Task: structure prediction
Amino acid sequence: MPLKPAKGGSARAKVDASTSPTRPDDIDIELAGTSRRGGAGAASSADHLASRAGPSSAIDADATRATAAVVVNALPAQASLPASQPTLDHYVINARAMLPELNSEGLRVLNQRTYVDVADGDLVLVAVDPQTGLQRARRPSELLPGPVMLRDADSGLWYAREVVEPTTRAQIERYFPQATDQQVENLIARFGDKDVADVELKRVQSGLAQMERDMAILDGTGSFVAREMASRLRRLYTWQGDPDERVYHDDRLAGFKIEIDLNAWPTHRTFPTTFNSIASLTLRDGSQLNLEAFLR
Result:
């Protein structure tokens, strides 16, 4: 649309009457921001408009002075909106009819994949985090695990953890009512996360009977050294290591150290018990021992 030169250097635009039925044809309107002059110049512009419109015009001179302005701010070229974090809905699947019944841990396992029941009858694929022992939501196409999943003791349903709570003495004493101060201090120092501590406390508690059977075999060898090892392993299994037995990694308690005389260990004997609390192991001699079986 051609612009008509305006008095005082301001630009004017023509308004097509076909698109503005309430305005007469061929009205010149001053464009916003094309002139910074006010006073008599602004008033004469309004008078000019009124005279062009004629006495029957409905145009108000004051209205013509007020022009709408649109401010556009350009975003930097590199600016981008933050990526939203995935919710549990991203991990829900529908395959209940194909899956087996719940096991004792509230899990459904099929073809080496594990599923948990969540609210509203949905299912979520999970996998154990090797660092913490906790179940975490996942999708087959993703390498990185999703949120930590916890099971509600009353309903048996699983939910995504939102808050990390610290390990407490009361929590430890629920599993070991006679826990010593040293045992409580060790567990809190090693497991600051209440849910991670629960995984280890349950494992230790459920394995106590098997551990005692294994240690009874050491006691039965008749060797004083073997009995001493059995006594020490009993302590370490329940995280009752002494301060001088502690092993630290990145300034944090990792576990305890122990030295085992393999000459006193029953030859070719393997024990099912796992000692998560042992972070440093020194083996002496043992030429007659099946070392691979022992380390398993």
In short: The chain has a mean pLDDT of 78. Residues 4-65 form one domain. The longest strand covers residues 252-261. The two ends are 86 Å apart (CA to CA).
